[in-house]
């Protein structure tokens, strides 16, 4: 089935021919009648020797006889929905030869158009096509969309339409108009309308429209995009992204998330990699201030959470100092995302009393560097799961320092690369092997150190010669994992 071109057809005043008089023909007739409704619709003509009474009732004209070529005269659209397959093929051929739109139910090869699955919130219509690949999937999608769209949405659209001329008169600027509508639709007015208080919504909309227009300044939303999987975006992040005029993002943000950005929004890539800074932090800060002061709604999109090793705090401070409105939208940080994607609980009774998130950025620092030295002794002493960000290239060093500070070399450790993404890799071993475990990985990768690593989902662990038989060793070490046996060695002690 070739890709189909989606369009919505206005059938007002057009003639639609239905060849066939049975149930199938009736279903098509109902769709046509439903889509054109309120007397302004298509003129329905039915040709068949026997016509179902309900179908006859919908039709403007019924021709009780077999199909003839001249039935196509003056017609825009044809359904060949009779029981006779040869007749349907003939109708389709003749219709195509005349350049008419024709549909033969369940025979896409004969049809020039197919009927999508429909969610009807008149005047809002959502049409779904799977390109003929899976009608069941189409129905499932329809159910999901049905559930997501409020029943009163169609009436809301009509209500808003009634105000369009008034809004255009008050707000001549297109951007200002768009924002006005977005505020109405996302805000209390639409909520009130959908909740059934249509008079209240009307009154409030009139009031807002009459109120002197306050000067609209720009704003910046610091948005966490999560660890990669677009499903892990928050609903708020999605809404803010879709409303943005400008999106400033870096390398960690997955392309599939950028697909949610409005197509006419500007995207600015300020990707940073460890050694080559494409755009400096000062330049990014200045860019955010400049764009917001130009009146744009700016989204600063960051991997994970903006406030976890994301320099979100610095950007927030600069924006506040410049008097720019800042909205903060949290995201799922790498440690939390990677934990869920590998089956490693970050805290677990008897195994980890807490979580410590650290960056290995300053791991090599011993004075001299701008980064303060890490307190390895404190980290080694804590009965915590340790999540090390930006630690891939220093994995061996991290292990060395932790062991020197008293952490047991046999402590389970994991490296999760591209966590939550389709190309996620999980390797596990002992702390002493961390350098070797990380070798060959290119990141982004998160290091997890702690007993909870033994709970990792075995199916997620990458096969590698480096990976030791840590589970067997650990589960056979008395007292180490409580009541586990070699068979259920991965089960937690409780
Ligand atoms: N603000 C981000 C962290 C930015 S620092 C957050 O909250 O997650 C960049 C580091 O995050 C990387 O070096 C890596 O350690 C970690 N990271 C980010 N995304 C990751 C992913 N999908 N898988 C593994 N680690 C990731």
TrEMBL record:
Pfam families: CysG_dimeriser, NAD_binding_7, Sirohm_synth_M, TP_methylase
Pathway(s): Porphyrin-containing compound metabolism; siroheme biosynthesis; precorrin-2 from uroporphyrinogen III: step 1/1; Cofactor biosynthesis; adenosylcobalamin biosynthesis; precorrin-2 from uroporphyrinogen III: step 1/1; Porphyrin-containing compound metabolism; siroheme biosynthesis; sirohydrochlorin from precorrin-2: step 1/1
Residue span, Tetrapyrrole methylase domain: 220-434
Record field: catalytic activity: precorrin-2 + NAD(+) = sirohydrochlorin + NADH + 2 H(+)
Annotated Sirohaem synthase dimerisation domain residues: 152-206
Residue positions of the active site: 250 (proton acceptor), 272 (proton donor)
One GO biological process term: siroheme biosynthetic process
Siroheme synthase central domain span: 121-147
GO MF term list: NAD binding; precorrin-2 dehydrogenase activity; sirohydrochlorin ferrochelatase activity; uroporphyrin-III C-methyltransferase activity
Domain of life: Bacteria
Keywords: Cobalamin biosynthesis, Lyase, Methyltransferase, Multifunctional enzyme, NAD, Oxidoreductase, Porphyrin biosynthesis, S-adenosyl-L-methionine, Transferase
Family classification: Belongs to the precorrin methyltransferase family.
Name this protein carries in UniProt: Uroporphyrin-III C-methyltransferase/precorrin-2 dehydrogenase/sirohydrochlorin ferrochelatase
């Amino acid at each position: 089935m070739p890709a189909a071109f989606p369009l919505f057809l206005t059938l007002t005043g057009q003639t639609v021919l239905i060849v066939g008089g049975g149930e199938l023909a009736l279903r098509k007739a109902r769709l046509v009648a439903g889509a054109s409704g309120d007397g302004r619709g298509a003129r329905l003509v039915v040709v068949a020797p026997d016509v179902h009474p309900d179908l006859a009732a919908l039709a403007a004209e019924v021709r009780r006889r077999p199909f003839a070529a001249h039935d196509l005269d003056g017609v825009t659209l044809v359904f060949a929905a009779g029981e006779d397959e040869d007749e349907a093929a003939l109708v389709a051929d003749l219709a195509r030869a005349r350049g008419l739109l024709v549909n033969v139910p369940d025979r896409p090869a004969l049809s020039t158009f197919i009927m999508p699955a429909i969610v009807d919130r008149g005047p809002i219509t959502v049409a779904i096509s799977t390109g003929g690949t899976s009608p069941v999937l189409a129905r499932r999608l329809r159910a999901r969309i049905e559930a997501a769209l409020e029943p009163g949405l169609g009436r809301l659209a009509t209500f808003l339409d009634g105000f369009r001329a008034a809004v255009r008169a008050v707000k001549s600027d297109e951007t200002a108009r768009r924002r006005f509508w977005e505020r109405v639709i996302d805000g209390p007015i639409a909520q009130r309308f959908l909740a059934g208080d249509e008079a209240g919504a009307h009154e409030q909309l009139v009031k807002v429209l009459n109120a002197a227009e306050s000067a609209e300044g720009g704003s910046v939303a610091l948005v966490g995009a999560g660890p990669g999987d677009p499903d892990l975006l928050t609903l708020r992040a999605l809404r803010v992204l879709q409303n943005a005029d400008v999106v400033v993002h870096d390398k960690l943000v997955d392309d599939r998330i950028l697909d949610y950005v409005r197509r006419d929004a500007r995207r600015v890539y300020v990707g940073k990699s460890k050694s080559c800074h494409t755009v400096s932090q000062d330049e990014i800060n200045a860019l955010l201030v400049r764009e917001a002061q130009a009146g744009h709604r700016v989204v600063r999109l960051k991997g994970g959470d903006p406030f976890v090793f994301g320099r979100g705090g610095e950007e927030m401070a600069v924006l506040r100092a410049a008097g720019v409105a800042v909205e903060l939208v949290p995201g799922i940080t790498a440690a939390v995302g990677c934990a869920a994607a590998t089956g490693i609980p970050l805290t677990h009774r008897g195994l980890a009393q807490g979580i410590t998130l650290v960056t290995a950025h300053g791991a090599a620092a011993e004075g001299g560097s701008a980064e303060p030295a890490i307190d390895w002794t404190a980290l080694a002493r804590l009965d915590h799961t340790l999540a090390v960000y930006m630690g891939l290239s220093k994995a061996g060093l991290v292990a060395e320092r932790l062991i020197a500070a008293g952490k047991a070399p046999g402590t389970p450790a994991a490296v999760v690369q591209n966590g939550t993404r389709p190309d996620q890799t999980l390797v596990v071993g002992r702390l002493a092997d961390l350098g070797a475990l990380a070798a060959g990985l290119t990141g982004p990768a998160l290091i997890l150190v702690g007993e909870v690593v033994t709970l990792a989902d075995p199916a997620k662990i990458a096969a590698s010669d480096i990976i030791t038989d840590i589970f067997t060793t650990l589960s056979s070490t008395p007292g180490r994992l409580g009541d586990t046996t070699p068979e259920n060695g991965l089960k937690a002690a409780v």
